[in-house]
Structures
1.
Amino acid sequence: MDSDTFELLKTTVRRFVDERLVPNEDRLEAEDEVPAEIVQEMRELGLFGLSIPEDYGGLGLSMSEEAEIVFELGRTAFAFRSVIGTTVGIGSQGIVIDGTDEQKREWLPKLASGEAIASFALTEPNAGSDAASIQTSATRDGDVYRLNGTKRFITNAPRAGMFTVMARSEPGVAGAAGISAFILPADTSGITFGKPDRKMGQRGTITCDVIFDDVAVPAANIIGGVPGRGFKTAMKVLDRGRIHMSALAAGMSDRLVEESVRYAVERKQFGQAIGGFQLVQGMLADSRTDAFASRVMVADVARRFDAGEKVSADVAATKYFTTEAVGRVADRAVQIHGGAGYMADYKVERFYRDVRLLRIYEGTSQIQQVIIARSLLRDAGLAV
Ligand code: COS
């Protein structure tokens, strides 16, 4: 995107966050639902199509540009971004990265316009961090595969128009090489949903189990048309998704610094604003440092991702640092707010719970550590 158009988009999104999303945070919390008019406004702004190429009706942002937009969206309750998150990120990117031209033509325009929401179905009751051990089966039956199994914690499942489903399609092939990624229209018969999950935070986001009972999906819906490549597609999608998540963490770190500074200026104890006390200043300084480092890491890794560098290990380092950092920043924000920080009226309590998930989804901090360390050791010739 040319830089003037991009600056305009960024300013528009920032204004949308400040004027529409932030004022609706309490309503979101109370109703546990993103208001329908906000979803419609997101469609009109083109937010569903951020990462989808322009040829297919999206805005075609680079990773660096997407990160800057997600940084803005990270400055408010995460549930707003979650409506577009799986379509911009993990749900659609398998098709964008590895899909055939026909698959792109069929699905990407609908996803870009927000007509259909994409959802990513990898995790299962017995396969979380160990993604290669999924058990959902895809059994060939003529021109179709029959899917059977259960997917867990699937974001946006009841809202979805399509799922990217990872399933075992290769009989007798254990581990990653036996997995294919399927494009599954959500109206296919045999798909049912579990009860919505009750979560620690992120009210307004929807996650639940998705159960496949002999769901027939055309063999032509295997992403890229070649079976057995689904795990690699999932890993590539997650590389991109983890940069997106890091930008989200960096955005929320900034918001929490703003909230902390505002409170430190307003709140008086011992006859002066608490910001005058050096122990409070220390917390503010540490939080700003975490927020700044997060933003710089995201910008650097996104730029190198766009340049085509092999950056999976640094993506992992970025996700690890930024999501742990926002946990620290949120904790300090509560501390700076004192008793008020524990009360629901001040939003830091809510954000403290919301950010906890960042260290878990799209790969736990421990999985990021494994990816970083393995890369270092493999480069040094050790088989790990
Ligand atoms: N890009 C492209 N290919 C990748 C890749 C990446 N980022 N990461 C791994 N691969 C490839 C490997 O090169 C390997 O291919 P070959 O067999 O041809 O060499 C294959 O995928 C298997 O990789 P690996 O042996 O590293 O797989 P593991 O089972 O050891 O799993 C981890 C690796 C743990 C990193 C992976 O399972 C993971 O990311 N787990 C977390 C899953 C997750 O994020 N879940 C969150 C839910 S989704 S919201």
Note: The chain has a mean pLDDT of 97.
2.
Amino acid sequence: MKPLLRICLIILLSKGVMAQAPSGYNYDESKVPSFQLRSPLVTKDGREVTDRAAWNSQRQTLLKEFEATVYGAVPEQADIQLSGVEVEESLVWNGKAVRDLTELTYTYKDRELRLNLLSYRPVGEGPFPVFLGMNFSGNQTTTTDPAVPLSRNWVMKNPEIGMPTNVATEASRGGRSMRWPLELMVERGYAVCTLCYGDVDPDFDDGFENGLHGLVRSKEFGSIAAWAWGLREVRGYLQQLPWTDRVAVFGHSRLGKAALWAGASDPEFSLVISNNSGCGGAALSKRQVGETLKAINDRFPHWFVEAFHTYNERELELPLDQHLLMACVAPRLLYVTSASEDLWADPKGEQLATEFARPAFELLGGRVGYHMRPGRHNMLEFDWKRILDFADAHWR
Ligand code: GCU
């Protein structure tokens, strides 16, 4: 190989490795500290959980702990009203699917928040189980369908798909469609619904002023809790429609963290799917492999509550870990994915956390699915095919 070519290749390769595994963090299994994890089936005062009644109370306690220590909670007294629903329904894909473009308006006092949903479902009465998940850069990135309006709210910028700023562009249409095998899902008898996470809470540190924080004027919850609120609200809306009877929640990466928190805390989600959600999602924090608490809290100070920041560089003192969150999905269905090269998200830590959550499902029912895809941080058709197989076998 010519020297210049070789240098280019080395630069490209190291760039790839960097993106998967920023330097200065631990990726070496032999350097993982020893740590203890609480069993989901033992209460804080040491009693064993052996039946459904005891589990219900244990689950409530765990959720309160996650609220206080990690995510925060949208104040219960915030009486947010769904004040408007507009739906435009069309037959699409040569008559093979129905597309709904829906705008939900939420009102609190004199303020409003609008969520724009895009859904596709098979033709017919149903009921069709629906997969609900957020997207990063607008509904228009999930499909080349020209009728899907560009997001009007803050979106994650992504020059790779023709969106250099936080404003949606026509060039980004379909730019993320490889993560959204919509036709496959509909062909297999499922509906799918998405909205942009920026509709609920723009993803930057603005001192909790905009999005849901601005609506309820509260700083008691982080953005992950805000996105989870959006998922729960949309779940409530979907569930009263005539064409569906069950809703799964899913998300990739930071949206996988939000899906896990939404799914763990809202028992109406019958299937909860976390894809490559890593630190603050499916990975065990105490391992400190890849992204650490300090790394996540420094870069994304608005994702979690202040209490979580106090554990920066003190992971071993955390009173809980993420396997307990996943246990809160029991006795429902949980599916977790990792990617082998997604070292920043600690794939092994995600797998272990899933295993440590398992006893709750063994006692209470429900089921846990897991796969490790060879490759990088992403959510691809490979992942979806396995998720759909799990759904076919256990959810329908
Ligand atoms: C960053 C962040 C992760 C997060 C990811 C994403 O890499 O450190 O915690 O999961 O972004 O959401 O894409």
Note: Residues 253-254, 278-279, 291, 296, 344 surround alpha-D-glucopyranuronic acid (CB under 6 Å).
